[in-house]
UniProtKB/TrEMBL annotation:
It comes from the Eukaryota. InterPro entries: PGBD. Coiled coil: none annotated. The lineage of its organism: Eukaryota, Metazoa, Ecdysozoa, Arthropoda, Hexapoda. This is PiggyBac transposable element-derived protein domain-containing protein. It comes from Molorchus minor. Residues 64-406 form the PiggyBac transposable element-derived protein domain.
């Protein structure tokens, strides 16, 4: 019988936790024996959104934290005794507040106050008519998610660095996990939440597009749907790489999923533990990791497309493949002799084919699921700065929830016969929260009644100066003369328009503007 069957018979499946992840300390025997590789069992689970039958509109996919948001916000202002003349917020007002913020992610202005500006070129009439600026500012400063009066202090057993966000994080963790049945291939990677303030668990990652902020571990599906996440807050105790993959894969145990990860997490011991849980895994690896074989071909001997591999007696594959530079991989289910061809561009512009292992192609194909989710989130995101450390995380999860809802809605669109782009979906969610009906094009001739402007027309200072100082060349209407710009002996053109400064005739019609062309020469 195979090594995999022996493992499954001798070691019972159990769902490990962060506190119960004692990694084994075996001695691995590396060879080139392909018989040690386990045979992959087909994936038979049904991957799809787990959507109730009563879900019909994009708003129905939105999260269910609004009532908590209303209660905790009113509690916070009461505890701080800052209610004064302000009335308590309501569920409808919180919906409108969130909808306005989502809309501001689509229509960007330098400051949120510009949406209520008296200058016509800045003012947004839809947002300004939805909520007053003072009320929006009040909600922005007082919105809350948890009771500060019972918050455990540092040093106490129940101390939680994410206490202010805990109700939201717990609810979303449950909702994400239950709303989508995982696909066959999963990816685990880091994601950054932008923040430049001072907080103990802020991270700096030089190679990331977002270099400063909060680090989050994410498991995403093929569609980009985020199924699980963990916010990184402390490096003490168990190292993240020893527990993150375990915590994020407990829902996949025994179901023959494929999990892809980068070299931050991957190790020989981790591959063996996932193999016992019937989770197929693959990823890049660091060559100095414990138990990684050291007798692979040296770098200086390898050319582009060359590779070398070893298989352990437990079925773990260690691969070294040369592209621009050597890359190391670990897998517990791939065939290292599955050689394919890839095309690479040369310095002279031509293309040349090189050997590539199927393991490498699978990794490149499936590792980008978390990046796909980040890409969706970066489009029309609520990029709101704040001195309060938890606001950035709050708005990040509002955006992430919309992205997850969008992915579910797209995959379920065949049932309802609707397809939205991401922008249309966000507009639908914003309109549903604000309470406005989406606009539909009206048939027939538009009304000719003039729109009444309630604000005094404003002319900027620069325009006023230009109006009085740069008016030398003005068109004047006189008798017909030849056009100084386009008239020729063979093809004469005559016009009644003259330049007041140049004293020449210049054509000025809806088809050709010789007046403008002449003064640009």
């Amino acid at each position: 019988s195979s090594v995999f069957s022996q493992l499954s018979q001798n070691i019972p499946l159990q769902k490990s936790t962060a506190a119960n992840i004692a990694l084994p300390k075996p001695t691995f025997q590396w060879s080139r024996n392909l018989n040690n590789i386990i045979q992959q069992t087909p994936f038979v689970e049904n991957s799809r959104p787990n959507i109730p039958d009563d879900i019909e509109t994009p708003l129905d996919y939105f999260f269910e934290l609004l009532q908590t948001l209303v209660f905790q916000t009113n509690l916070y202002v009461t505890q701080k005794n800052i209610m004064r003349a302000q009335v308590p917020t309501t569920l409808e007002e919180i919906k409108c507040f969130l909808g306005v913020n989502i809309l501001m992610g689509i229509k960007h202005l330098c400051s949120y106050k510009d949406y209520w500006s008296s200058r016509e070129e800045l003012r947004d009439h839809f947002i300004a008519s939805s909520m007053s600026r003072n009320r929006f500012s009040w909600l922005l400063g007082n919105i809350h998610l948890n009771d500060n009066s019972v918050q455990p202090q540092k040093g106490e057993s129940m101390y939680d660095k994410l206490y202010k966000l805990r109700p939201m994080l717990d609810k979303l963790s449950e909702t994400y996990a239950n709303s989508y049945k995982p696909s066959r291939c999963q990816a685990i990677d880091e994601s950054m939440i932008r923040f430049k303030g001072i907080i103990s668990f802020r991270q700096y990652m030089q190679i990331k597009p977002i270099k400063r902020g909060y680090k989050m571990w994410v498991r995403a599906n093929q569609s980009g749907f985020v199924s699980q996440f963990q916010l990184y807050t402390d490096s003490r105790g168990n190292k993240p790489r020893k527990r993150v993959v375990f915590d994020l894969t407990r829902q996949l145990v025994g179901k023959n999923h494929e999990v892809y990860m980068d070299n931050f997490f991957n190790s020989v011991a981790l591959q063996l533990n996932l193999q016992k849980d019937r989770i197929y895994s693959c990823g890049t690896a660091r060559k100095d990791r414990k138990w990684f074989p050291m007798d692979l071909v040296e770098d200086k001997v390898m050319k582009r497309g060359d590779y070398d591999w070893k298989v352990s007696d437990t079925g773990i594959i260690a691969l070294k493949w040369r592209d621009n530079k050597p890359v190391h991989f670990l897998s517990n289910f791939h065939d290292p002799e599955d050689v394919q061809l890839i095309s690479r561009k040369q310095k002279d512009g031509s293309r040349k084919e090189y050997n590539c292992i199927g393991l490498v192609k699978d990794y490149n194909q499936h590792m980008g699921y978390v990046d796909k989710s980040d890409m969706y989130k970066s489009c029309y995101e609520i990029n709101r700065k704040s001195k309060k450390w938890w606001h950035r995380i709050f708005w990040h999860f509002i955006d992430l929830t919309i992205v997850n809802a969008f992915i579910m809605f797209q995959e379920n669109s065949s049932t309802h016969g609707k397809t939205f782009s991401l922008k249309e979906f966000r507009l639908a969610v914003a309109n549903g929260l604000i309470g406005a009906e989406p606009e539909t094009p009206q048939r027939g001739r538009r009304s000719l009644e003039p729109i009444v402007n309630k604000y005094k027309p404003y002319v900027a200072f620069e325009r006023r100066v230009r109006r009085t100082s740069k008016t030398a060349h003005m068109p004047i209407h006189v008798n017909k003369v030849r056009c100084a710009n386009c008239s020729t002996k063979n093809e004469p053109h005559r016009t009644r328009w003259h330049c007041s400064s140049c004293n020449v005739g210049l054509g000025l019609t809806d088809k050709k503007n010789c007046f403008n062309l002449f003064h640009k020469k």
